[in-house]
Amino acid sequence: MSASTRAVLGKVRQMIPPMLDKFHKGQLGRVAVIGGSQDYTGAPYFSSMASAKLGCDMSHVICTPEAGAVIKTYSPNLMVHPLMRQSPTDGQRAPDAKDISSSIIEMLPRLHVLVVGPGLGRDPLMQETVSRVIRAAREKKMPVVLDADALQLVQKDPEVVKGYREAVLTPNVVEFGRLWDSLHLGGAGSERETDKVERLAKALGGVTVVQKGSKDFISNGETTLVDDLEGGKKRSGGQGDTLTGSIATFLAWRRAYLDKLWDVGEDAMGPTELLGLAAFGGSAITRECSRLAFLKKGRSLQASDLTEEIHTAFLGLFGEVDGEASEAKL
Questions:
Q1: What is the span of the domain harbouring residue 52?
Q2: Fewest CB within 10 A of the end CB: N or C in the chain?
Q3: Does the annotation list 238 as a binding residue?
Q4: Could you tell me the pTM of the whole model?
Q5: 51 is in an annotated binding site
């Protein structure tokens, strides 16, 4: 890893809570993943399990009843809420998105971070529901990570997140291109490798964008971080869900850091810097999981293999974060 990546990881380590007896359930992270529909149940599971295995105290999935019945069989460790609804296909009248979203919005005071998009699909009722939830989260200044089909919503209506600096977008190369075109940003501009992510983040009013690739570029348009950690060479579906869940947990730890639930020292970092570091931490964990899983599985690697490597990746990058000797890469 480069010296700059090592230095950023050192800062990320400072925002990770130590394991202290005084903490109680829920203080170190309450994350909800909104997604999961009749056809897509794996993505919200991988995202919420990444959040849980990284160290989030309470991981929720908010999905449709059809998806909820399936996701509950994947793990008893997740709290599954079948509150979402898809448009009916039998000619019946569609439920009202306002009514559906209200039950989800009522949950927001019990949560620290939302992930929106894994397994969401493009059903109009689902899209309208999450649009209302995102706006409500924005009013509460709650961090929101958007991926997959939630980015379709941003593509159609950038105002949903424009100017909201607590939002993190994690587009793949195709999604990035669609967002770029929807904002009419034109040519690539300069030849600096971080130029496009910076322009996109600025066009969206300072949201944080994670541009995934051979390196991950993380920018809010003003400050840009580059994660050049080695990843695996297999690009199986679902790996991006590990990223969203991991970023969400780091964002929950950001809340604990800002609340000073432990002694963070005299030179405490501010909210904006911590948000970028949270995105970088999620990127680093995901790339290390991918590397470790690829070493074991090679071309047979699947998203579930990354899930199994999360704790090992954490220890390799950060150690135990308890003030004791460790084998961290830092």
A1: 3-318
A2: C
A3: yes
A4: 0.96
A5: no
Residue 48 lies in a domain: yes
35 annotated as ligand-binding: no
Residue ranges for the chain with pLDDT beneath 70: 188-190, 323-330
Torsion, CA 90, CA 91, CA 97, CA 102, rounded to 10: -60
Q: Is 281 annotated as a binding residue?
A: no
State the total domains in the chain. 1
Q: Is 241 annotated as a binding residue?
A: yes
Contact of 241 with 266, CB cutoff 8 Å = no
CATH number of the domain at 16, please.
3.40.1190.20
Whether 324 is in a domain gets the answer no
Q: What span, in angstroms and rounded, lies between the C-alpha atoms of 261 and 244?
A: 24
CA distance 292 to 308: 10
- Per-residue pLDDT at 330: 53
Is 240 annotated to bind ligand?
A: yes
Q: Does 323 reside within a domain?
A: no
Decide if 328 is inside a domain.
no
Question: Is 152 within any annotated ligand binding site?
Answer: no
178 annotated as belonging to a binding site for a ligand: yes
254 annotated to a ligand binding site = no
Query: How does pLDDT run across 129-185, given as a tens digit for each residue?
Result: 999 999 999 999 999 999 999 999 999 999 999 999 999 999 999 999 999 999 999
Please give the pLDDT value at position 90: 75
